[in-house]
Amino acid sequence: MSGPGPAPIRLVVGLGNPGPQYRLTRHNLGFRVLDRLAERQGLVFRLTRRGEEAEWAVPGNGRVLLLKPHTFMNLSGQAVGPLVRRHGWPPAAVLVVVDDLALAPGQIRLRAGGSAGGHNGLKSLIEALGTEEFPRLRIGIGHPQGRMPVIDWVLGVPWGEDRARLEAAVDTAAEAVETVLTRGWDQAATRYNATSLLPGGGRAGGGDGGGV
């Protein structure tokens, strides 16, 4: 099925940092969503020079590549750009799963494009693809309170209610990616945009977090 433009999604990129010390951090939600998607679909990641890759033969859509870049967040474009150019995919065929400070913890939002909003992984992708016009699935992590530096927040492990919301968001985001690929962008956006995950699996509607 197609993304927000005429091009079908051919690549799903989960943003994060490689290494066990980062696995459960807020900044690694993109990796975790792809892991959950692979579990749901019975896919196995293989290690390549770009990172970890898995291929999904999506009924009615063809083959879609899942990629977790191992370049570290700030250099994600170095893994994605050459791959996209080699296959001749337009940027609109690349769906990026990314954590977002501008949304409340657990909130989900599909966007057809937009600025990096201070996210270094998105900034690297925009530079590599030469455009801001590629779709992304944003997962809210909220802002740090008090004087905590943003870098400590995004590289920290959530706890309490935030942890419950983000654990639920990983499941729902994996479902959202499946919906984009099997039923199309419009159906996915209608169903999942601004969805806030509550502890216990409940949902509460939310507004646009703004920003990216």
UniProtKB/TrEMBL annotation:
Q: Active-site residues?
A: 27
Describe the reaction catalysed, as an equation. an N-acyl-L-alpha-aminoacyl-tRNA + H2O = an N-acyl-L-amino acid + a tRNA + H(+)
User: One Pfam family of this protein, by short name?
Assistant: Pept_tRNA_hydro
The entry's cellular-component GO terms read: cytoplasm
Question: Where is it chiefly localized?
Answer: cytoplasm
Which keywords fit this entry according to its UniProt record?
A: Cytoplasm, Hydrolase, RNA-binding, tRNA-binding
EC number annotated for this UniProt entry: 3.1.1.29
The UniProt entry, under CDD domains, shows:
PTH
Site Discriminates between blocked and unblocked aminoacyl-tRNA: give positions: 17
Q: Where is this site: Stabilizes the basic form of H active site to accept a proton?
A: 99
Record localization: Cytoplasm
**UniProt record, GO biological process:** protein quality control for misfolded or incompletely synthesized proteins; rescue of stalled ribosome
Per UniProt, where does tRNA bind? 22, 72, 74, 120
Q: What class of enzyme is it?
A: hydrolase
Q: Which GO terms describe its molecular function?
A: peptidyl-tRNA hydrolase activity; tRNA binding
* Assembly: Monomer.
The record's family statement is:
Belongs to the PTH family.
Give the protein's function. Catalyzes the release of premature peptidyl moieties from peptidyl-tRNA molecules trapped in stalled 50S ribosomal subunits, and thus maintains levels of free tRNAs and 50S ribosomes.
The name of this protein is Peptidyl-tRNA hydrolase
This protein's species is: Candidatus Hydrogenisulfobacillus filiaventi
Which lineage? Answer: Bacteria, Bacillati, Bacillota, Clostridia, Eubacteriales
Gene encoding it?
A: pth
